[in-house]
């Protein structure tokens, strides 16, 4: 390759081939793109690959004694392959706008123009005024060389007009993608009417395709991200509704027993009756505040809610219920109705006058990157394998921990009998307001 122009042409097509391969590879491996668009871009870049390969083979064959018909076939194949993206571009534009390709006047017009181009291209084999090839496989432009280019340029202009008319139906990124895909090719083809810039046509096709691909892919990834956020919000709403149901399904016998205890103490110990009334009121207020909360709350608020509940229970069970608090770490947030239902679940299933006193321990501790809440009881324990209501409550707490703060919950039997529930809260849930 002594001629630097031929070397430049060969290098240009090699670069176009590499860009096409990169585009095809990204189309296959990158997630976040819908099935129709993935098939479109795979076809888009495969066409470019074949077009670039046919041109590289054509350049190589110029230095070998190959049949002239083979050389002409490669030349026509390259031109046809590199014109196919015009139809594909129109089809993708209509797809993005939700239009039917079969009934689209724009697509039919571009299809007719491409058919005219293909017919004129085939006629170059018989009319030297379009193009002629020398015995040493060199092609030269004829006086009518410009004629087959006109249908392609008109088709690109129609695509440009069609994109402008549909700009309100496209997102900003997709609209820019189509403009970038159309204008460079159109300008290059217009220049090619007067100057031979054939290698630049292929490069402009590939660069435009990659630009359009990157814009559309980023737009689809953004849409996918918004969809995922919508799903997360829906999950949070469901979890919040479940928390509301938990509040509304307070144990009737707990309310009944509390009110009866207050009634009895009003005569025997009015001061204690006042204290239980205050604790019970505080418990109810925290319950209904939890329903109103749609985000995480400070741990101190949840701990106060739990203390109010246990104060009411201790007033009824007296020495049968012993509670220890060791919570030096409170600077974090968690979903409402997280700690209190766990403690209530322990009291409900562990209190039995025939057993010894129930000990409940509530602790917090810090590790490398998380805060842990440990609720430990000395009750008989229970089986987590069934789907009874208490276990559904615990599963709901676990789900809300994951969704609302990225936390987790583990439940294991206590060695000496009972249950240990550990809530893990990541540092991302630290209470920065404090």
TrEMBL record:
The chain crosses the membrane at residues 12-33, 40-64, 70-94, 106-127, 143-162, 174-195, 201-218. It comes from the Bacteria. Residues 247-320 form the Signal transduction histidine kinase internal region domain. It holds the Pfam family His_kinase. InterPro entries: Bact_2-comp_sensor_kinase, HATPase_C_sf, HATPase_dom, Sig_transdc_His_kin_internal. Residues 339-427 form the Histidine kinase/HSP90-like ATPase domain. One of its GO terms (cellular component) is membrane. One of its GO terms (molecular function) is phosphorelay sensor kinase activity. Keywords: Kinase, Membrane, Transferase, Transmembrane, Transmembrane helix. PANTHER family: SENSOR HISTIDINE KINASE YPDA (PTHR34220:SF7). This is Histidine kinase. It comes from Ruminococcus difficilis.
